[in-house]
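Figure 2 data, in text form.
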Amino acid sequence: MDKDKASTHVSNSVLVPTFAARGMTREIPKNRMMEEGMLPDVAYQVIHDELMLDGYSMLNLATFVTTWMDDQAGKLMSETLDKNMVDKDEYPQTAEIEQRCIKMIAELWNAPDHETAIGTSTIGSSEACMLGGMAMKWRWRARQEAAGKPTGKPNLVMGSNVQVCWHKFCRYWDIEPREVTSEGDRFTLNAEEAMKLVDENTIGVVVIMGSTFDGRYEPVEEVSKALDDYENKTGLDVPIHVDGASGGFVAPFLQPEIVWDFRLPRVKSINASGHKYGLVYPGVGWVVFRDKDSLPEDLVFHVSYLGGDMIDLSINFSRPGNRVLGQYYNFLRLGREGYRRIHQTSQDVAKQLSSSIGELPPFDLITDGSDIPVFCWTMNAEYAKTAKFSLYDIAAKLRERGWLVPAYPMPANRSDLVVQRVVVKEDLSMDTANMLLEDIKRAIEFFESKPENTPSTDDGGFHH
């Protein structure tokens, strides 16, 4: 190779920041540490420039995760980045604030006595679900042992639309997952189908408030009544864990009339994501137990650490305390009325946008955002017979404008049905939603104007 040409060849294993040419003349290895460091401004700019290739978070309508907070919240969280939530002896006021949040959330969910509520903050709802699931397994095992029955074949009843964390829980803790599959236009669990799977080895039933697939609430009260009848017939007390990852911070404000929480005695634990409709940057989740009897003592650890006694419920150990402080900030800053106003505005946007999309000839609405501010649609069956595009094509075309609007198949037994979904969060204004609508219309016009086009049948792995 010519020497001059060799000198201009850049390996894919290095970074060459041109902006630093005046003060830096060496390449930066991507996959191994350099012998010497660099100036902080240069390190910042290298990473900053790479991150420009990420999507713009406000246009990410795939994620449930909060993408905007007040500047004051950002400042507070930045000031407390160094606080380790597990060091309760070292950071007693952060620990105190965590307990305040737990009591506030317990009251929000109508716990019998929120002042003595038991729960914990977590990294997110996945960890919180694990804790709720473990409590169900431990209580079931104790019941079986007391009755002299085997404990080797526990099962958990849930819908096939559950988040993947529940599949992980079943695999990690050796539990048989029993799934209510989709049927026709039903994409969630209901009491009739759930009860077909319940037996003496059922540790509990998971009911979702806000399915990630279509935004629907599952009928917690209906399932609870069915389990009451089951106990009357069999003597078996099967608990409910409510996965309120998305709806736990929506239903209390927008649909207070729905009975889904600790007002139902059979609900023993509830989780929610503070970093979803709790309006906090990722990651923080919460799990609250109905009372002390709902949390087996075997799952509570008393740890002597850094000179103090600490009660630890979480699976993770060291984790950031600043997200908990961000949650407390929101509780103080917004109050009940603030949360209600924000979520109502999001729901108004969701319902108007969904209505407009449903009026477009290629599409049929499946949900309209009436539960949590999330809705989805599918291709109209008649239109699909001659369509030159699929929903995957629409998703890909919208990406060209920066929008992330995923297309994906529905849960097991209805995976033949492909849908597109929008998650409306606080930073999606009506004006921005109208821009999305216009881009969807332009995408349809683009594909319809092409003489021939073979519709895509997959999304390239972007549906989650």
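Caption note: The chain is about 35% helix and 15% strand.
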